[in-house]
Design goal:
The protein is α/β, with parallel strands linked by helices. Helix content is 38%, strand content 23%.
């Protein structure tokens, strides 16, 4: 129980929820007190700090490519376990803790993924701004679970500082990371063929587009499968200009947007141009792109920016797209509202 409280000491939001709800705690079941662990393989360009704390093993400085697997466990709540089930989804994220990190050489990690690839070709995921290594591990687990990508998930972690005031630093570090991300995509396609998927969130989605532009220039005959851009923090018109260069090397590009994304609204004000992940853009001009608008969903994300990890409806849609290869016209809970755009609805909103 002491380790439980040690973990909570870093998470004041969780402490607030516990204090607010302690007076109504039913008896926990055995399932509620069992520890659950998750593993996520990763490639990273972060510096190894040498820390004994697994969550702090990698920092925010630039470094050469490293690899490994982070193990994330759900906190053992004991008699407080029912709180985890009833807390909001954005608080439940704080109930995860990075338990340990196993390091390996990048080539050895890809060998392991190749040898155990029973769930299909890998989906490489690139995170966004304001993500340190510890938070990135936890959120990678949440996406892996929400989209049912276990067994084929690979997290690419570039050296974000994990500090909210360091947006421009993160932009610079993202650009610095693009060649290595492009190399990773090329190597995955070489090993696994044309079934490789590439997923990017927020600033990471910008990195994905830039890396694909690089890949297309260097290897115009390469072929990738699904490209998914979630809450993309990228200039809409710049994406439109890049699109003809990257479309020939991919099977399909899917862009998720919402009109309620507060971080993207701030980014649009900072840059002076609309973001790709915002609702209201002229998406009909994006030839060959399928656009999914999640504005009608109860996403569970207070800022509207993290629907990919908090919304079960988005997770279900990503599962259909990435695991079944199903286009928007055939996926459940989607209502077409434009030539290449669909509204994603809660299941109880669908007739």
């Amino acid at each position: 129980m002491q380790s439980f409280f040690d973990s909570l000491s870093k998470r004041p939001g969780v402490c607030f929820v516990i204090l607010a709800m302690m007076m109504a705690i039913p008896s926990p079941s055995m399932a509620q007190t069992d520890l659950t662990t998750f593993e996520v393989p990763f490639l990273t360009l972060r510096n190894n700090t040498g820390s004994d704390d697994a969550g702090d093993l990698f920092g925010g400085a630039r470094s050469g490519l490293s690899a490994g697997e982070c193990q994330v466990r759900a906190l053992d709540f004991g008699n407080l376990a029912p709180l985890a089930d009833s807390a909001p989804s954005f608080i439940q994220e704080e109930f995860l803790d990075v338990d340990q990190v196993r390091l390996s050489e990048p080539a050895d990690l890809l060998d392991e993924i190749e040898a155990s690839a029973t769930a299909g070709e890998p989906a490489i995921y690139v995170h966004g701004y304001f993500i340190d290594f510890e938070k990135g591990c936890r959120r990678a687990v949440l996406l892996q679970n929400n989209a049912n990508l276990g067994g084929r998930f690979l997290w690419f972690s570039w050296p974000s500082d994990g500090a909210i005031a360091y947006y421009t630093h993160d932009e610079a570090d993202l650009y610095w990371s693009v060649p290595d991300l492009a190399d990773a995509i090329i190597e995955l396609e070489r090993r696994f063929g044309s079934g490789v998927d590439v997923v990017g969130h927020s600033l990471g989605a910008r990195g994905v587009v830039l890396a694909l532009y690089d890949v297309a220039n260097r290897h115009p005959n390469i072929r990738l499968d699904e490209i998914v851009l979630l809450a993309a923090d990228m200039d809409f018109e710049i994406f439109k200009r890049f699109l003809p260069r990257i479309s020939p090397i991919v099977n399909r590009i899917t862009v998720y947007v919402t009109s309620d994304d507060e971080p993207l609204e701030l980014s649009a004000q900072l840059h002076g141009y609309a973001r790709l992940g915002e609702g209201g853009n002229d998406v009909a001009s994006l030839e060959g792109v399928e656009v999914i608008d999640v504005s009608e969903l109860r996403t569970g994300s207070p800022t509207g920016h993290l629907y990919h990890i908090y919304s079960g409806s988005v997770g279900d849609d990503l599962n259909q797209l990435l695991n079944d290869g199903t286009g928007a016209a055939e996926r459940r809970n989607l209502m077409q509202n434009g030539p290449n755009s669909w509204l994603l609805l809660q299941s109880d909103q669908v007739d």
